[in-house]
Amino acid sequence: MTKLWGGRFQKTPEEWVDDFGASIEFDQQLAEEDLKGSLAHAQMLGKTGVLTEQETKLIISGLQTLQGKAKRGELAFSSKYEDIHLNLEKHLIDEIGPLGGKLHTGRSRNDQVATDMHLYLNKHVEDIISKTEALQKVLVTKAEEHVYTILPGYTHLQRAQPISFAHHLLAYFWMLERDKERLTESLKRIQVSPLGAGALAGTTFPLDRTYTAELLGFQSIYENSLDAVSDRDFILEFLNNSSLLMMHLSRFCEELILWCSQEFQFIELDDTYATGSSMMPQKKNPDMAELIRGKTGRVYGNLFSLLTVMKGLPLAYNKDLQEDKEGMFDTVKTVEGSLEIFAGMINTMKVNKDAMGQAVREDFSNATELADYLAKKGMPFREAHEVTGKLVFLCIQKGCYLKDLQLEEYVNASSLFEEDLYEAIDPFEAVAKRLSEGGTGFEMVKIALEKAKHRLEDV
Ligand code: ARG
Protein backbone atom coordinates (compact mmCIF):
# COMPACT_ATOMS: atom_id res chain seq x y z
CA MET A 1 0.00 0.00 0.00
CA THR A 2 1.38 3.42 -0.85
CA LYS A 3 1.75 5.82 2.02
CA LEU A 4 0.36 9.33 1.92
CA TRP A 5 4.01 10.36 2.25
CA GLY A 6 5.33 7.48 0.07
CA GLY A 7 6.76 9.33 -2.96
CA ARG A 8 10.38 9.29 -1.82
CA PHE A 9 10.38 5.65 -0.76
CA GLN A 10 11.32 2.50 -2.69
CA LYS A 11 10.18 0.06 -0.04
CA THR A 12 7.34 0.12 2.46
CA PRO A 13 7.96 -0.54 6.16
CA GLU A 14 7.37 -3.97 7.65
CA GLU A 15 3.92 -4.27 9.14
CA TRP A 16 5.25 -4.42 12.69
CA VAL A 17 7.28 -1.26 12.10
CA ASP A 18 4.07 0.43 11.02
CA ASP A 19 2.33 -0.84 14.13
CA PHE A 20 5.12 0.31 16.42
CA GLY A 21 5.10 3.81 14.95
CA ALA A 22 1.34 4.20 14.73
CA SER A 23 -0.56 6.33 17.22
CA ILE A 24 -4.08 5.85 15.87
CA GLU A 25 -4.97 3.44 18.65
CA PHE A 26 -4.97 6.36 21.09
CA ASP A 27 -4.95 9.58 19.06
CA GLN A 28 -8.34 8.75 17.55
CA GLN A 29 -9.57 10.51 20.70
CA LEU A 30 -8.54 13.69 18.90
CA ALA A 31 -10.85 13.13 15.91
CA GLU A 32 -13.26 15.90 16.91
CA GLU A 33 -10.44 18.41 17.47
CA ASP A 34 -8.63 17.37 14.30
CA LEU A 35 -11.74 17.96 12.18
CA LYS A 36 -12.36 21.29 13.88
CA GLY A 37 -8.78 22.36 13.11
CA SER A 38 -9.11 21.20 9.50
CA LEU A 39 -12.35 23.14 9.04
CA ALA A 40 -10.69 26.33 10.25
CA HIS A 41 -7.67 25.73 8.03
CA ALA A 42 -9.91 25.09 4.98
CA GLN A 43 -11.96 28.19 5.66
CA MET A 44 -8.78 30.25 5.91
CA LEU A 45 -7.36 28.78 2.68
CA GLY A 46 -10.59 29.88 1.01
CA LYS A 47 -10.47 33.37 2.52
CA THR A 48 -6.88 33.96 1.47
CA GLY A 49 -7.53 32.65 -2.05
CA VAL A 50 -5.20 29.63 -1.78
CA LEU A 51 -8.29 27.51 -2.54
CA THR A 52 -11.07 28.56 -4.89
CA GLU A 53 -14.53 29.15 -3.48
CA GLN A 54 -15.75 25.93 -5.03
CA GLU A 55 -12.84 23.89 -3.65
CA THR A 56 -13.33 25.36 -0.22
CA LYS A 57 -17.04 24.53 -0.27
CA LEU A 58 -16.42 20.93 -1.28
CA ILE A 59 -13.66 20.38 1.28
CA ILE A 60 -15.78 21.93 4.04
CA SER A 61 -18.78 19.81 3.22
CA GLY A 62 -16.56 16.71 3.07
CA LEU A 63 -15.18 17.53 6.52
CA GLN A 64 -18.70 18.09 7.85
CA THR A 65 -19.72 14.67 6.56
CA LEU A 66 -16.76 13.20 8.42
CA GLN A 67 -17.81 15.08 11.57
CA GLY A 68 -21.23 13.45 11.40
CA LYS A 69 -19.72 10.01 10.81
CA ALA A 70 -17.23 10.49 13.65
CA LYS A 71 -20.06 11.40 16.04
CA ARG A 72 -22.00 8.31 15.07
CA GLY A 73 -18.89 6.14 15.40
CA GLU A 74 -18.97 5.28 11.72
CA LEU A 75 -15.37 6.09 10.86
CA ALA A 76 -13.00 3.14 10.72
CA PHE A 77 -9.39 3.86 11.64
CA SER A 78 -6.37 1.80 10.71
CA SER A 79 -2.73 1.69 11.78
CA LYS A 80 -1.93 1.51 8.06
CA TYR A 81 -2.53 5.26 8.09
CA GLU A 82 -0.45 5.79 11.19
CA ASP A 83 -2.29 8.49 13.07
CA ILE A 84 -5.55 10.42 13.30
CA HIS A 85 -4.37 13.08 10.85
CA LEU A 86 -3.55 10.71 7.99
CA ASN A 87 -6.58 8.53 8.71
CA LEU A 88 -8.90 11.51 8.41
CA GLU A 89 -7.13 12.79 5.32
CA LYS A 90 -7.62 9.37 3.73
CA HIS A 91 -11.31 9.46 4.67
CA LEU A 92 -11.66 12.94 3.17
CA ILE A 93 -10.07 11.81 -0.10
CA ASP A 94 -12.38 8.78 -0.15
CA GLU A 95 -15.29 11.14 0.42
CA ILE A 96 -14.59 13.93 -2.09
CA GLY A 97 -11.79 12.58 -4.31
CA PRO A 98 -8.23 13.92 -4.92
CA LEU A 99 -9.35 17.46 -4.07
CA GLY A 100 -9.18 16.26 -0.42
CA GLY A 101 -5.41 16.30 -0.84
CA LYS A 102 -5.48 20.10 -1.14
CA LEU A 103 -6.50 20.50 2.49
CA HIS A 104 -2.95 19.91 3.67
CA THR A 105 -1.64 22.92 1.71
CA GLY A 106 0.53 25.06 3.97
CA ARG A 107 0.07 22.69 6.87
CA SER A 108 2.08 19.94 8.51
CA ARG A 109 1.04 17.25 10.93
CA ASN A 110 3.39 19.01 13.32
CA ASP A 111 1.31 22.16 13.67
CA GLN A 112 -1.83 20.10 13.19
CA VAL A 113 -1.21 17.75 16.14
CA ALA A 114 -0.16 20.62 18.40
CA THR A 115 -3.38 22.45 17.48
CA ASP A 116 -5.43 19.34 18.27
CA MET A 117 -3.92 19.05 21.70
CA HIS A 118 -4.43 22.70 22.53
CA LEU A 119 -8.09 22.30 21.58
CA TYR A 120 -8.41 19.06 23.52
CA LEU A 121 -6.93 20.47 26.72
CA ASN A 122 -8.93 23.66 26.43
CA LYS A 123 -12.12 21.62 26.54
CA HIS A 124 -11.02 19.27 29.30
CA VAL A 125 -9.37 21.82 31.56
CA GLU A 126 -12.63 23.76 31.53
CA ASP A 127 -14.46 20.57 32.40
CA ILE A 128 -12.04 19.79 35.23
CA ILE A 129 -12.49 23.32 36.60
CA SER A 130 -16.25 22.87 36.71
CA LYS A 131 -15.97 19.41 38.28
CA THR A 132 -13.64 20.85 40.92
CA GLU A 133 -16.20 23.49 41.63
CA ALA A 134 -18.95 20.90 41.93
CA LEU A 135 -16.86 19.15 44.58
CA GLN A 136 -16.32 22.46 46.40
CA LYS A 137 -20.10 22.93 46.51
CA VAL A 138 -20.52 19.52 48.09
CA LEU A 139 -17.89 20.42 50.68
CA VAL A 140 -19.63 23.69 51.51
CA THR A 141 -22.99 21.94 51.90
CA LYS A 142 -21.48 19.32 54.22
CA ALA A 143 -19.60 21.99 56.14
CA GLU A 144 -22.82 23.94 56.70
CA GLU A 145 -24.34 20.88 58.36
CA HIS A 146 -21.34 20.46 60.65
CA VAL A 147 -20.30 23.84 62.00
CA TYR A 148 -20.94 22.63 65.56
CA THR A 149 -19.66 19.09 65.09
CA ILE A 150 -16.36 18.88 66.92
CA LEU A 151 -13.56 16.39 66.54
CA PRO A 152 -9.89 16.22 67.41
CA GLY A 153 -7.56 18.10 65.10
CA TYR A 154 -4.28 16.27 64.71
CA THR A 155 -0.61 17.01 64.35
CA HIS A 156 1.78 14.07 63.89
CA LEU A 157 -1.47 12.06 63.75
CA GLN A 158 -1.67 12.62 67.52
CA ARG A 159 -4.71 14.36 68.90
CA ALA A 160 -3.78 18.02 69.16
CA GLN A 161 -6.67 20.45 69.68
CA PRO A 162 -10.42 20.19 69.14
CA ILE A 163 -11.75 21.72 65.91
CA SER A 164 -15.01 22.15 64.08
CA PHE A 165 -15.60 19.49 61.40
CA ALA A 166 -16.73 22.25 59.04
CA HIS A 167 -13.33 23.89 59.49
CA HIS A 168 -11.63 20.65 58.50
CA LEU A 169 -13.79 20.30 55.38
CA LEU A 170 -13.19 23.92 54.40
CA ALA A 171 -9.43 23.37 54.48
CA TYR A 172 -9.96 21.22 51.40
CA PHE A 173 -12.24 23.82 49.86
CA TRP A 174 -9.32 26.27 49.81
CA MET A 175 -6.88 23.73 48.43
CA LEU A 176 -9.29 23.11 45.57
CA GLU A 177 -9.72 26.84 45.13
CA ARG A 178 -5.98 27.14 44.47
CA ASP A 179 -6.19 24.20 42.06
CA LYS A 180 -8.95 25.95 40.19
CA GLU A 181 -6.98 29.17 40.09
CA ARG A 182 -3.94 27.39 38.67
CA LEU A 183 -6.03 25.61 36.03
CA THR A 184 -7.84 28.80 35.09
CA GLU A 185 -4.59 30.70 34.82
CA SER A 186 -3.13 27.99 32.57
CA LEU A 187 -5.92 28.50 30.03
CA LYS A 188 -4.17 31.55 28.63
CA ARG A 189 -1.25 29.36 27.62
CA ILE A 190 -3.55 26.65 26.30
CA GLN A 191 -5.56 29.07 24.19
CA VAL A 192 -2.63 29.81 21.89
CA SER A 193 -2.69 28.66 18.28
CA PRO A 194 0.24 26.80 16.71
CA LEU A 195 -1.68 26.41 13.43
CA GLY A 196 0.15 27.88 10.48
CA ALA A 197 3.61 27.17 11.85
CA GLY A 198 3.92 24.44 9.23
CA ALA A 199 6.47 21.70 9.84
CA LEU A 200 8.80 24.06 11.67
CA ALA A 201 9.58 27.16 9.62
CA GLY A 202 6.27 28.63 8.52
CA THR A 203 5.12 28.35 4.91
CA THR A 204 5.32 30.14 1.58
CA PHE A 205 1.52 30.29 1.33
CA PRO A 206 -0.20 33.47 2.45
CA LEU A 207 -1.81 32.01 5.57
CA ASP A 208 -3.85 34.08 7.97
CA ARG A 209 -2.94 32.63 11.34
CA THR A 210 -4.94 35.12 13.35
CA TYR A 211 -8.05 34.18 11.42
CA THR A 212 -7.70 30.44 12.14
CA ALA A 213 -6.90 31.25 15.76
CA GLU A 214 -10.12 33.24 16.02
CA LEU A 215 -12.16 30.52 14.34
CA LEU A 216 -10.85 28.02 16.86
CA GLY A 217 -11.50 30.24 19.87
CA PHE A 218 -7.82 30.79 20.68
CA GLN A 219 -6.73 34.04 22.33
CA SER A 220 -3.41 34.40 20.53
CA ILE A 221 -0.92 32.71 18.22
CA TYR A 222 2.57 31.35 18.89
CA GLU A 223 5.12 34.02 17.98
CA ASN A 224 7.74 31.55 16.80
CA SER A 225 7.09 28.66 14.43
CA LEU A 226 9.80 26.42 15.95
CA ASP A 227 8.36 26.95 19.41
CA ALA A 228 4.82 26.43 18.11
CA VAL A 229 5.44 22.87 16.91
CA SER A 230 7.72 21.69 19.68
CA ASP A 231 6.25 23.31 22.79
CA ARG A 232 4.62 20.93 25.21
CA ASP A 233 4.78 23.23 28.26
CA PHE A 234 1.02 23.55 28.21
CA ILE A 235 0.65 19.79 28.64
CA LEU A 236 3.32 19.65 31.34
CA GLU A 237 1.60 22.48 33.15
CA PHE A 238 -1.65 20.57 32.99
CA LEU A 239 0.03 17.43 34.31
CA ASN A 240 1.61 19.45 37.09
CA ASN A 241 -1.66 21.13 38.03
CA SER A 242 -3.35 17.74 37.94
CA SER A 243 -0.66 16.26 40.17
CA LEU A 244 -1.31 18.94 42.80
CA LEU A 245 -5.06 18.46 42.54
CA MET A 246 -4.73 14.69 42.88
CA MET A 247 -2.34 15.14 45.82
CA HIS A 248 -5.07 17.11 47.59
CA LEU A 249 -7.69 14.48 46.86
CA SER A 250 -5.27 11.77 47.94
CA ARG A 251 -4.62 13.39 51.31
CA PHE A 252 -8.36 13.66 51.86
CA CYS A 253 -8.77 10.01 50.81
CA GLU A 254 -6.21 9.02 53.39
CA GLU A 255 -8.29 10.75 56.06
CA LEU A 256 -11.53 9.17 54.88
CA ILE A 257 -9.87 5.76 54.96
CA LEU A 258 -8.68 6.31 58.51
CA TRP A 259 -11.98 7.81 59.62
CA CYS A 260 -14.05 4.85 58.44
CA SER A 261 -11.80 2.32 60.17
CA GLN A 262 -13.04 0.58 63.31
CA GLU A 263 -10.36 2.48 65.22
CA PHE A 264 -11.85 5.89 64.36
CA GLN A 265 -15.46 5.29 63.27
CA PHE A 266 -15.84 9.03 62.54
CA ILE A 267 -17.66 8.42 59.27
CA GLU A 268 -19.38 5.69 57.35
CA LEU A 269 -19.11 5.67 53.58
CA ASP A 270 -22.26 4.90 51.67
CA ASP A 271 -22.57 1.32 50.44
CA THR A 272 -22.47 2.59 46.86
CA TYR A 273 -18.89 3.81 47.35
CA ALA A 274 -17.56 0.78 49.21
CA THR A 275 -16.99 -2.87 48.38
CA GLY A 276 -16.99 -6.14 50.28
CA SER A 277 -14.41 -8.87 50.61
CA SER A 278 -14.71 -12.16 48.74
CA MET A 279 -13.64 -13.98 51.89
CA MET A 280 -14.36 -11.90 54.97
CA PRO A 281 -18.10 -11.30 55.26
CA GLN A 282 -17.81 -8.43 57.74
CA LYS A 283 -15.68 -6.21 55.50
CA LYS A 284 -16.72 -2.90 54.02
CA ASN A 285 -13.73 -1.49 52.23
CA PRO A 286 -13.25 2.14 51.16
CA ASP A 287 -12.07 1.03 47.70
CA MET A 288 -12.91 4.24 45.87
CA ALA A 289 -10.93 6.39 48.28
CA GLU A 290 -8.03 3.94 48.06
CA LEU A 291 -8.17 3.97 44.28
CA ILE A 292 -8.10 7.76 44.05
CA ARG A 293 -5.10 7.71 46.42
CA GLY A 294 -3.49 5.06 44.23
CA LYS A 295 -4.27 6.78 40.94
CA THR A 296 -2.47 9.88 42.20
CA GLY A 297 0.69 7.87 41.57
CA ARG A 298 -0.07 7.43 37.89
CA VAL A 299 -0.74 11.13 37.42
CA TYR A 300 2.65 11.96 38.98
CA GLY A 301 4.10 9.27 36.69
CA ASN A 302 2.58 10.91 33.63
CA LEU A 303 4.14 14.24 34.61
CA PHE A 304 7.55 12.70 35.07
CA SER A 305 7.44 10.63 31.93
CA LEU A 306 6.71 13.67 29.76
CA LEU A 307 9.32 15.81 31.55
CA THR A 308 11.80 13.05 30.77
CA VAL A 309 10.70 12.76 27.14
CA MET A 310 11.22 16.50 26.70
CA LYS A 311 14.55 16.97 28.42
CA GLY A 312 16.83 16.08 25.55
CA LEU A 313 14.82 17.11 22.51
CA PRO A 314 16.49 19.38 20.00
CA LEU A 315 14.26 21.76 18.07
CA ALA A 316 11.85 21.31 16.48
CA TYR A 317 9.46 18.33 16.08
CA ASN A 318 10.77 14.88 17.01
CA LYS A 319 8.74 11.71 16.92
CA ASP A 320 9.40 11.36 20.66
CA LEU A 321 6.65 13.95 21.00
CA GLN A 322 4.07 11.36 20.04
CA GLU A 323 4.65 10.06 23.58
CA ASP A 324 2.92 13.16 24.96
CA LYS A 325 -0.57 11.88 24.34
CA GLU A 326 -1.30 8.77 26.34
CA GLY A 327 -0.26 10.36 29.65
CA MET A 328 -2.41 13.40 28.86
CA PHE A 329 -5.49 11.30 27.98
CA ASP A 330 -4.95 9.10 31.01
CA THR A 331 -4.62 12.12 33.31
CA VAL A 332 -7.79 13.74 31.97
CA LYS A 333 -9.72 10.51 32.51
CA THR A 334 -8.24 9.96 35.97
CA VAL A 335 -8.81 13.50 37.24
CA GLU A 336 -12.33 13.79 35.83
CA GLY A 337 -13.29 10.39 37.26
CA SER A 338 -11.70 11.05 40.65
CA LEU A 339 -13.45 14.40 41.07
CA GLU A 340 -16.84 12.91 40.27
CA ILE A 341 -16.43 9.92 42.54
CA PHE A 342 -15.11 12.12 45.30
CA ALA A 343 -18.08 14.48 45.22
CA GLY A 344 -20.48 11.52 45.43
CA MET A 345 -18.52 9.95 48.24
CA ILE A 346 -18.59 13.09 50.41
CA ASN A 347 -22.18 13.83 49.58
CA THR A 348 -23.40 10.42 50.73
CA MET A 349 -21.11 9.70 53.68
CA LYS A 350 -22.59 9.53 57.18
CA VAL A 351 -20.84 11.62 59.80
CA ASN A 352 -20.72 10.05 63.23
CA LYS A 353 -20.92 13.17 65.41
CA ASP A 354 -21.02 11.15 68.61
CA ALA A 355 -17.80 9.28 67.88
CA MET A 356 -16.10 12.54 66.94
CA GLY A 357 -17.40 14.26 70.10
CA GLN A 358 -16.38 11.36 72.31
CA ALA A 359 -12.90 11.43 70.84
CA VAL A 360 -12.40 15.03 71.98
CA ARG A 361 -13.91 14.41 75.38
CA GLU A 362 -11.84 11.39 76.17
CA ASP A 363 -8.39 12.64 75.39
CA PHE A 364 -5.97 15.42 76.24
CA SER A 365 -6.62 17.73 73.31
CA ASN A 366 -7.84 20.30 75.85
CA ALA A 367 -4.42 20.50 77.52
CA THR A 368 -3.55 23.70 75.64
CA GLU A 369 -6.73 25.21 77.12
CA LEU A 370 -5.49 24.49 80.61
CA ALA A 371 -2.08 26.04 79.91
CA ASP A 372 -3.77 29.08 78.33
CA TYR A 373 -5.99 29.35 81.44
CA LEU A 374 -2.94 29.69 83.66
CA ALA A 375 -1.21 32.02 81.20
CA LYS A 376 -4.26 34.28 81.21
CA LYS A 377 -3.97 34.45 85.00
CA GLY A 378 -0.43 35.76 84.70
CA MET A 379 1.74 32.64 84.77
CA PRO A 380 4.42 32.68 82.04
CA PHE A 381 3.26 30.30 79.30
CA ARG A 382 6.40 28.16 79.57
CA GLU A 383 5.65 27.53 83.25
CA ALA A 384 1.95 26.94 82.51
CA HIS A 385 3.01 24.34 79.94
CA GLU A 386 5.11 22.56 82.56
CA VAL A 387 2.34 22.57 85.21
CA THR A 388 -0.19 21.26 82.68
CA GLY A 389 2.20 18.59 81.44
CA LYS A 390 2.57 17.33 85.00
CA LEU A 391 -1.22 17.26 85.43
CA VAL A 392 -1.55 15.24 82.18
CA PHE A 393 1.03 12.84 83.56
CA LEU A 394 -0.95 12.56 86.80
CA CYS A 395 -4.08 11.72 84.79
CA ILE A 396 -2.25 9.05 82.83
CA GLN A 397 -1.09 7.48 86.09
CA LYS A 398 -4.61 7.60 87.51
CA GLY A 399 -6.24 6.44 84.27
CA CYS A 400 -8.47 9.52 83.88
CA TYR A 401 -8.73 12.79 81.90
CA LEU A 402 -8.24 16.43 82.91
CA LYS A 403 -11.95 16.94 83.48
CA ASP A 404 -11.91 14.13 86.08
CA LEU A 405 -9.28 15.61 88.43
CA GLN A 406 -10.53 17.22 91.66
CA LEU A 407 -10.18 20.97 92.18
CA GLU A 408 -7.93 20.15 95.11
CA GLU A 409 -5.53 18.31 92.86
CA TYR A 410 -5.45 21.34 90.58
CA VAL A 411 -4.82 23.75 93.41
CA ASN A 412 -1.97 21.55 94.61
CA ALA A 413 -0.36 22.06 91.19
CA SER A 414 -0.98 25.83 91.17
CA SER A 415 -2.86 28.19 93.42
CA LEU A 416 -4.11 30.05 90.34
CA PHE A 417 -6.66 27.31 89.60
CA GLU A 418 -10.30 27.98 90.47
CA GLU A 419 -13.63 26.28 89.80
CA ASP A 420 -13.96 28.00 86.38
CA LEU A 421 -11.12 25.86 85.03
CA TYR A 422 -13.62 23.11 84.19
CA GLU A 423 -15.47 25.39 81.83
CA ALA A 424 -12.19 26.51 80.30
CA ILE A 425 -11.20 22.97 79.39
CA ASP A 426 -14.54 22.03 77.88
CA PRO A 427 -13.65 21.11 74.25
CA PHE A 428 -16.74 22.82 72.84
CA GLU A 429 -15.72 26.04 74.57
CA ALA A 430 -12.17 25.51 73.37
CA VAL A 431 -13.37 25.53 69.79
CA ALA A 432 -15.78 28.41 70.32
CA LYS A 433 -13.03 30.63 71.69
CA ARG A 434 -10.60 30.26 68.78
CA LEU A 435 -11.82 33.38 67.08
CA SER A 436 -8.59 34.56 65.50
CA GLU A 437 -8.89 35.13 61.76
CA GLY A 438 -8.94 31.84 59.87
CA GLY A 439 -9.34 29.92 63.14
CA THR A 440 -11.80 27.19 64.04
CA GLY A 441 -14.10 29.20 66.35
CA PHE A 442 -17.73 28.59 65.33
CA GLU A 443 -18.36 32.25 64.52
CA MET A 444 -15.18 32.33 62.42
CA VAL A 445 -16.22 29.18 60.60
CA LYS A 446 -19.56 30.77 59.76
CA ILE A 447 -17.74 33.75 58.28
CA ALA A 448 -15.45 31.37 56.37
CA LEU A 449 -18.49 29.57 54.98
CA GLU A 450 -19.88 32.85 53.71
CA LYS A 451 -16.55 33.66 52.08
CA ALA A 452 -16.42 30.23 50.45
CA LYS A 453 -19.95 30.61 49.11
CA HIS A 454 -19.11 34.06 47.84
CA ARG A 455 -16.13 32.64 45.96
CA LEU A 456 -18.37 30.09 44.30
CA GLU A 457 -20.89 32.74 43.28
CA ASP A 458 -18.14 34.86 41.77
CA VAL A 459 -17.44 32.38 39.00
N1 ARG B 1 1.32 11.19 15.31
C1 ARG B 1 2.25 12.26 15.36
C2 ARG B 1 2.40 12.74 16.81
O1 ARG B 1 1.57 12.46 17.58
C3 ARG B 1 1.79 13.39 14.54
C4 ARG B 1 2.87 14.27 14.02
C5 ARG B 1 3.70 13.52 13.09
N2 ARG B 1 4.65 14.29 12.46
C6 ARG B 1 5.73 13.76 11.80
N3 ARG B 1 6.50 14.61 11.25
N4 ARG B 1 5.94 12.50 11.77
O2 ARG B 1 3.31 13.37 17.19
From TrEMBL:
One GO MF term attached to the UniProt entry: argininosuccinate lyase activity
Q: Which InterPro entries match?
A: Arg_succ_lyase_C, Argininosuccinate_lyase, Fumarase/histidase_N, Fumarate_lyase_CS, Fumarate_lyase_fam, Fumarate_lyase_N, L-Aspartase-like
Q: Provide an example Pfam family for this protein.
A: Lyase_1
- State where it is primarily located: cytoplasm
Please tell me whether the keyword Lyase is annotated for this protein: yes
Q: What domain of life does the UniProt record list for this protein's source?
A: Bacteria
Q: Per the database record, which ranges form the Argininosuccinate lyase C-terminal domain?
A: 364-432
Top enzyme class: lyase
Q: Tell me which residues make up the Fumarate lyase N-terminal domain.
A: 7-301
Q: What EC numbers are recorded for this enzyme?
A: 4.3.2.1
Q: In which pathway does it act?
A: Amino-acid biosynthesis; L-arginine biosynthesis; L-arginine from L-ornithine and carbamoyl phosphate: step 3/3
BP terms from Gene Ontology: L-arginine biosynthetic process via ornithine
A GO cellular component annotation in the UniProt record: cytosol
User: Is Amino-acid biosynthesis one of the keywords?
Assistant: yes
The alphabetized UniProt keywords are: Amino-acid biosynthesis, Arginine biosynthesis, Cytoplasm, Lyase
Q: Which reaction does it catalyse?
A: 2-(N(omega)-L-arginino)succinate = fumarate + L-arginine
**Record localization:** Cytoplasm
Tell me the protein family, please.
Belongs to the lyase 1 family. Argininosuccinate lyase subfamily.
Q: Which PANTHER family match?
A: ARGININOSUCCINATE LYASE
Q: What is this protein called?
A: Argininosuccinate lyase
